[in-house]
Amino acid sequence: MAFCQQTLHENYVQKIDGSSLLFSMQAIPGGTFSMGSNGGKDDEKPIHKVKIAPFWMSTFEVTWDLYEPFLYKDYELSKQVTAGISPEVDAVTRPTKPYLDMTFGMGKEGHPALAMTHYNAIQYCKWLYLRTGVFYRLPTEAEWEYACRAGSNAAYFFGDDTAKIDDYAWYGANAAGRTHQVGQKKPNAFGLYDMLGNVAEWTYDQYHADFYTQFVGKTAVDPLAVPTELYPHVLRGGSFKSDVNDLRSSARSASDPVWKQLDPQMPKSNWWFPEAPFVGMRLVRPVTVPSVEEIMSYYDQAPIEDF
Known about the structure:
four-stranded antiparallel beta sheet, alpha+beta
């Protein structure tokens, strides 16, 4: 296992040793911010103070270029510049082969990977950990909003003027019903691209409509709604299908079992949402590294069967 010797909290590029694969990470400073919105939907209320520890977040949404080697061993081998895959990596359970083209004809190279389940996204993080020695995971919902806002209290990280949205996001009005290659729009102040639109991004949290109410008059420290149920989990950022209002920094959305409605398998796949070609993911790496036991506990939770 190759370990990334990242000692300073600064932007860096993660290389996957033995392969031609790499991706960039942005250093997100810790801080306190106002989470939620009193003018949005009920599940965004009330605005409350949240303190966030420093972390890194991937500059771009995870693309097929980085995701596909996890899906298929043969494809992973084709990306190797040195021979073989370690036994640890080889032992990772890979997704079942989807019965549909999971790009939905929208393109692969540079396009965000999509339609993976919450479980699938976490198992990708495990594969990445075994490939790099670095603990990557999904962002918490609070980390995601903090990173998206990048110091802004406005409805959008660029302000309140929706006339500017086309400069920053692929969404329902300009995306032509499809994903686009990452990084074509302007980034936010933290250097993060496509935080709004393109694909909605998984967070680790269980979705609770009233989750914020417990923090009235308090400062929440790295809050997390620990997931215990298969549905719903929180997604953030909106997608290429979204209305501009659903791209606001505080806007929340939730996974839905109808995204597997057409899945002919019984039980339904743990790995894919065949009716959610608008769901993707982005990586986080915490500055404070958990213990190996905590890391494996995060990765090794058994999937809940979906009937």
